[in-house]
Structure prediction request, 238 residues.
Amino acid sequence: MSDFTGLVRRCIQDYQMISEGDRIAVGVSGGKDSLALLTALAALRDYYPKRFQLTAITLSMGLPDMDFSPVAQYCAQLNVPYIIKETQIAQIVFEARKEHNPCALCSKMRRGALNNTISELGITKLALGHHLDDAVETLLMNLLYVGRLGCFEPVTYMSRSGVTQIRPMLYCSEGEVRAFARRNALPVVESTCPMDKQSSREDTKELISELSKKYPDIKSKIFGAIQRLPLPGWEKPQ
Prediction:
């Protein structure tokens, strides 16, 4: 716990993600990443020098056979308020719109619904479970599919909603997140989305896996390049 939360704390401090008195919503999909983030922030909440509050929020996409009751029980153990927002995003994307590229529309709708939900609660900061591997994959996806160098930012202010997104797990690799989730027996809810593990991100993940066989430190080098350039938004505040 201490090693993992140490990485999360260092990322938060490097990019000044948390201010005194913040009310922070954690987007909890039920996957290992968001549950690991929630666990780490709940632990930090007890001793971090700047006091903050947490609320966990799950968007129910309307997918079948996804039971979030274990997540609700876990949030109660952590003493974190838990809210499930029911949506019909899956029906809109897969049935009404019959999207050829459903992931893009789904992501946009989920972002909007999540921002609207936390705004209704008077919360202006949203913690997302992106980790180091996600940053590396996003950079390569932008390069391969769009032809530009770009990545999401550690801290992003969304002017339309007034919500600030923070990504405190950027110093944690996916392997570290997976090991943390396993050691702490986190109540992971398996996704029933028909596009799960079939997106362009999965293709990029496989490419990186193949490259890693020849260049074992490729992910850390790419992540280091993101910080050293630095890409927009990756400059560490002075």
